[in-house]
């Protein structure tokens, strides 16, 4: 069963992946968000000051639960919980950019997948390479599991940290656009862009567990 542009709508998980250079981080897995199970963790992440660019820091738990349910019921956007070593550590949203958020604002192509990435607030000492590993796993998930031909993002132009991470994954800024609450850097990354990037060029070893 498929949704927009061949995107799967049945429950699915990404393969667990482990990069030898990041093996100290542990295997990474992505699964569908289950609102009743994941809303508490998502509320903690979204309302943390480090997540200010998501524009959700003032939401209550009930509002995050309602938001998660809306996305779970949608056909043109999905949310995924990323687990590292079995623990929830990040969330990915994927969407059809020709219908959600970017409709009419850019030249869409067949196989485009929009993406948002949120990592959990750091607890204790930062784990070196964590965000690199998360970004690389997310991009592989989009290209392999969701069969994207291009990944499209629209970060706030003030978010210099994600701009650097996007560049490391091979994203190219197309132009700046105005979106609700932000001036955004519309950026795209093809399969070839990612493969040639600092993060995409790393050798991946899939863990069948």
From TrEMBL:
InterPro entries: Acyl_CoA_acyltransferase. It comes from the Bacteria. One of its GO terms (molecular function) is N-acyltransferase activity. This is IucA/IucC family protein. It comes from Cellulomonas flavigena (strain ATCC 482 / DSM 20109 / BCRC 11376 / JCM 18109 / NBRC 3775 / NCIMB 8073 / NRS 134).
